[in-house]
Amino acid sequence: MSPATGGAWEPQGLDTRRAVQIVTTRRASAGRRGSGYQVTGDVVLTAAHVVSGAVSVRVRFVTEDGVTWDVDAETVWDDSDVDVALLRISNDPYFARQYTDEVPPVRFGRPEQPVACEALGFPRFRLRRDTASPDHGAPRTYRDTQHALGQAVPAAGLRQGTLEISGLEAPRDDPDPKRSPWEGMSGAAVWSGGCLIGIISEHHPGDGLGRLTARPVNRWYTSLSRARIDELGALIDLPVDRDRLDRLPRSSPPPPDISAGLRGAARKLAATVQSQWDREERRRKVHDPMPLAVRFRTAERGLFDHWANIRRAPAGADPGPLPLAGRLDRIVRVYRSLPSRRLVVLGAAGSGKTILTLRFVLDWLGDRTPGAPVPVIFGLGSWNPATTSLRDWMCDQLIQDYGLAGRDPESPGRNLAGALLDAGCILPVLDGFDEIAGGLQGEALRKLNATTTGLLLTSRPEQYAAAVADNDVLSAAAVIELDGLTLTDLADYLPRASRPGPDGSLHDTVWRPVLAALRQRPRTEGAEHLAAVLTTPLMVAMARAIYSDRPNRRPTELLDTSRFADPDALRKHLLAAFTPAVYERPPTESESDSEEDGDTGRRRPRHWDPDRAQLWLGYLAEHLTRLGTTDLAWWQLGITLRRSTRILVIGFLAALSLGLTTAVGNLPVDLVATSFGLGFALERGLVVGLLHGLVAGLGFGLGYGFVSRGAAKPARVRVQLFGRTGEKRGRFLPRFKVGLALGAPAALTLVLVDRSVVEHIGLGDGLDGGLMGAIEFVPGVGLGIGLVLGITAWLEVPSDIDSAARPSALLHDNRKNVAFHMLVWALVFGLAAGFASGLSSDPVGRITNGPVRGILTGLVFGGETAFGGGLGYGLCFTAWGQWVALSRIWLPLTGRLPWALVAFLDDACERGVLRQAGAVYQFRHAALRDHLTQEFTKQSTRCDQHPTDSR
């Protein structure tokens, strides 16, 4: 939409770093100035009349910092009929390094309707005075850039064969009436929808100051011979015929008509996702000191669909390929250039696929417009395509990671996650096709082909190629492949990521001898091995962590073939040395430095023993390997323990919680309400606590054994006291029935134990109410437990997405839910017992009837049920309770995990060993996870063979 109409304008295609000024000199007259665009590494496109009759031509680049660089050029192709010229830039070493490396090819298009457009040039009205004149004499002048935003109107100028650019911000009239203020804009490339559609050629004064005339690309085909078109194709990759130009505007489905509630949910989700991955990018030091130069190119034929399907071409058309090569910072532009909005990214292990997805999400959200889908990264390692559809699995992930369990206000039977997916508000970024468990890539590909939704998918090349060979390509999807890093990339990055040398320059860092060895021709064997390893961002990042971020480390050891006989040995060394390096305490840091910084208020990294940290991380890695997943979920950490161990631990803790509270609670009751004395109260408390604990342990242990087919999932709910609906009331009755069915047998068991054992050994205190008391107690407990479960179900509503999804946040919410459950247990049973006791008669006359007795009984009985029943229920049936029992008590007790587990996991993220992906953790790379698993397995085997060594 044109800015003149007040709509939103989205820049695409134009790379400001490639827009240039053309400066010419002539023999008989003053030189001309114009504009141009770098279309390939050494070719600049401009207007033919700008360079016509020139004795010399210089091309002036302007960096984003305002620095200029002039390069000589010569005309290699021109045609006055279409007013097009191509300039070849001279072989300037500095320029070749800064400006010609991996210049992505240009995409050409033709507008068939009025479309928004843009051009960047150097017009006369942008003439400015240079205040920094080097000779301090008369100030010099220069022409600054003008980013012209307007509308390309293809129906204007049909007879002349030109393209009208209208709606431009009009400059003031030039003081010289014989000159146009737009002079110097000629040759600027006109862009729309990511395509170059024409070249600015002239300004007609009669059209006013807000219009320019361009020569459209599509008219080149009617004005030039086939041979001349072929020459342009060889020089700038111009398509061989006009039908292969992108047609603009591209056909696309209308934006979904979604409700205000869904728009609000999408807006909150976008903010949460952006905050989450901004934090992860900082942790990975992506911009410290600068991003690595990750590049990609179009993959080999046979891995992707027909270009006609990718470009959604009409029947009978064969539009040809799109130029997809580029750098990491252009991934969003490449994706948006695909009409199908389906892209596969292939790359070897550690080649930067995950960083690419992170950059894609952040760049997309950086200029996301209202109504555009929200990109969400889904780790495919947890998807089982044989049992779950893609839509249902993504729905579960959105609920787990972002709390989208709330109901869609437009469709009460559907949650927000499903509503956003169905409305097209989610752009799936599917990371790790190769990590799908069980060799189910073929089934996953078939499930993906059953959808037409836009997506971005990453995979290692071998697994994706195998799935394609056995099935079919991913329909309408283009495929790109990541290239390896070059020696130039390493020379640019590693010195800047290291401590400065003695002279403070980049040329005398610890990497100087290594880079010299890599530049040497022929290389030594060690240099060849290292060059093969440092082609992936993962290995470079690990080398940096080991040698650049730690003092007194010398990377020259990486060239030692006596230690590292081949590239695999080097990779294993970097993986093995990474964890000890990141957990090594800096020599200037003391123990107190691990606590809070008094100056900044920020908490410094906590110190962990490197050997124990390696052991704990190895256990976590081996745990994931046994589960066959990449997601380290806190609620699943205990699931790989033997089932019998889990039952015993949870049963013991449930027994302990009820036994202790019963024993302690029995003391004040027997001391106040009976005349037996302290000795009797102590003895009876111990026996009753032991017996009730045994009953609770057996009951909750068996209950956990019955439901422990897998880990309990964390609840994505919160408590809401007001605004109850009929839907919530409908959840009360089922939970009430469950509580009644479980509570009555449990109460009956306790009564039988008290009557048959406690009274039999002479420890009855006469407070049980006899037969009538037993008859009232059993259904009373059943009703109480039913009320507890029913009330909690009644007050729970799906959680919201106001805060960023983090494992610790989800854990905190579930802890609050269990605490609320315990409070409800205490209130229901405490109030009921206190009220009943306050109205009953005193059987021994030791305590006054009424409020005092009721309060005492309510406090005791409420505390017993809260810590006995409520905590036991939490340990057995909730994710937080199982986490406490197994991951916070048992695993640290046996030395497999630290006591401060959450702090350790969060700190591992800060150190770059783990990363947070929604509500779960993940190892930063599968190669690191696999290495830690192998080391843990070896150590466990040695300990089994030599038990004394494990002490």
> What gross morphology would you assign?
elongated
Strand content: 15-25%
Structural class: alpha+beta
Oligomerization state of this entry? single chain
Radius of gyration: 36 Å
The profile of the biggest β sheet is:
7 strands, mixed
By DSSP (H or I, 4+ residues per run), the number of helices equals 27
What does it look like?
This protein is of the alpha+beta class and 951 residues long. 43% of the residues lie in helices and 15% in strands. The chain has a seven-stranded mixed β-sheet. Helix 16 crosses helix 17 (567-583). Residues 1-12, 591-604 and 842-848 have low confidence and may be disordered.
Write the SSE topology:
Layout: E1 19-25, E2 33-38, E3 43-46, H1 48-51, E4 56-62, E5 68-79, E6 84-89, H2 93-99, E7 109-111, E8 115-121, E9 127-130, E10 140-143, E11 146-153, E12 163-166, E13 189-192, E14 195-202, E15 212-216, H3 220-223, H4 226-236, E16 246-248, H5 260-283, E17 295-298, H6 307-310, E18 326-327, H7 331-336, E19 342-346, H8 353-366, E20 374-379, H9 390-402, E21 407-408, E22 411-415, H10 416-422, E23 426-431, H11 441-449, E24 455-459, H12 461-470, E25 478-482, H13 487-493, H14 512-519, H15 525-533, H16 537-548, H17 567-583, H18 610-627, H19 643-673, H20 678-707, E26 717-719, H21 726-758, H22 770-795, E27 796-798, H23 807-839, H24 851-877, H25 879-893, H26 901-910, E28 914-917, E29 920-923, H27 926-945
Parallel strand pairs: 7-16, 19-24, 19-25, 20-23, 23-24
Antiparallel strand pairs: 1-2, 1-4, 2-3, 3-6, 4-5, 5-6, 8-11, 8-13, 9-10, 11-12, 12-15, 13-14, 14-15, 17-18, 17-25, 21-22, 26-27, 28-29
Helix pairs in contact: 5-8, 15-17, 16-17, 17-18, 18-27, 19-20, 19-24, 19-25, 20-21, 20-24, 21-22, 22-23, 23-24, 24-25
